[in-house]
Amino acid sequence: MLNRVILIGRLTKDPELRYTPSGVAVATFTLAVNRNYTNQQGQREADFINIVTWRGLAENVANYVKKGRLVAVEGRIQTRNYENNDGKRVYVTEVVADNVRFLESNQNRSEFHGSPDSKNDRFDNDPFINDGSPIDISDDDLPF
Question: Where is region (Disordered) located (predicted)?
């Protein structure tokens, strides 16, 4: 049997960090993951997926990831249920992450929000801007 999921998306808000009574860190956040198609109005839709991280990963996520940041999440899908204050059974499906990769730096994220005419536009610093153009490199610089 296999229960593995990989998601790439943006955080909808800052992660919430809490600690269990025994002192174990747990962080939760919601990831907005775009669908591969647009709806009839031509708008792209997204799924909002609840993510849970534990221990050191939870603390790292809480300290270094903020709303709007692009991350990759690897983990497993977990379902649980509980009885709420009204006595109704509530079912929850979430991803328990065992790996979260930060896909953009704080610097890139702040530059992305700059105006397109600004010198801080992230594309001004893109080393791959001329991707596909011939590169002048000597055979001595090649590792093989």
Answer: 106-144
